[in-house]
Amino acid sequence: MRLLLALGWTAIVLIVLWAPSPPPLDVGIPHFDKYVHFALFAGIGVAWSFAGARAVVTIACGIVLGVVTEVVQGALPWPRGADVWDVVADAGGLVLAVGLVALVRRVVPSGPRRHTATAAGRPPARRA
What we know:
The chain is an all-alpha fold. The chain contains four helices and no strands. Helix 1 (2-18) runs antiparallel to helix 2 and helix 2 (32-50) crosses helix 3 (55-75). The radius of gyration is 21 Å and the shape is elongated.
């Protein structure tokens, strides 16, 4: 299921990045598209990390994907342009997300917690 979610998120990112550009949105934030790239690729980093991909593989493949998306954007027949700073934002999102997932996994114990001792400090009685 996690693999399907990672594949699905990656597909959504490709659709967003390769679809015809919407009319410019003036949100009052300079270089807003870089924040969008950062967030989309952070999502890729989180999705593939939880899907079980190794951190270095997620980052390396994500950066390659970022480069490919920019090359394709430069070749599309509608107004989309390739920008190396988009790849930098993509890489930043990937590295931050994968790093945060790794940090959370080290800090937060995984799996259900099992109580191995009673309040008196003795192991629980075995059931027959």
